[in-house]
Design brief:
single chain; 192 residues; mainly beta; 17-stranded parallel beta sheet; 24 strands
Length: 192
């Protein structure tokens, strides 16, 4: 478990992990993870928030950059590349996600003003999932490549909490799944 500010990780390999490589349970700002390899995550039995990088719901995690990394082989049942709670102004760019049993990126409650662009997803159950028990607002998903999803490339689990999501210029060899969308939900902008 970590917290703090102004950390930089570059060209590091994280292999054969149990539960997490990073579990950020304290406020965490200005962290950069660049050009790293995350390989072989084994989730805790029965726990549903395992990820190579997991941002906990305690405190805020703002202005983080995760770019040019490789996330692969996150095992069943809930292996995920990056899982976020209470994050803002996060950029996830030019990462590669392969064989993530649950999701490549999972934006959960209180993720706002964040961008996932120019990423590649191959053989993930769900490439990107957005769903909150609190608001996920003003997020962008653009210029990504999705293929071989065993579930869906994009999974929007709304139930009245996800709004102003901008999805554009992605290449999908898969489909998108919008779940629990209600008539009073804020706009989802989906175009090519």
């Amino acid at each position: 478990s970590m917290g703090g500010a102004d950390r930089y990780y570059q060209n590091v390999s994280f292999r054969e992990l149990y539960g997490y490589a990073f579990e950020l349970t304290l406020p965490n700002d200005y962290m950069t993870v660049f050009d790293c390899v995350f390989d072989d995550l084994v989730p805790y039995a029965g726990y549903q928030n395992d990820a190579f990088i997991s941002y906990g719901a305690v405190g805020s995690h703002d202005k983080n950059l995760i770019a040019h990394n490789e996330f692969k082989n996150a095992a069943a049942p809930y292996g995920t590349g990056i899982k976020t709670y209470t994050t803002a102004q996060m950029l996830l760019e030019a990462n590669a996600f392969y064989n993530c049993n649950d999701m490549g990126i999972s934006w959960k409650s209180s993720t706002a003003y964040s961008v996932a662009r120019n990423n590649t997803f191959d053989s993930c159950n769900r490439a990107i999932g957005i769903g909150g028990y609190e608001t996920c607002d003003n997020n962008e998903i653009s210029h990504n490549f999705f293929r071989n999803s065993t579930g869906s490339a994009l999974y929007m689990n709304d139930s009245g909490t996800t709004s102003n999501t901008y999805i554009y210029r992605n290449t999908l060899a898969d489909y998108m799944h919008f779940r629990l969308i209600e008539i009073d939900d804020s706009p989802f902008t989906v175009y090519n």
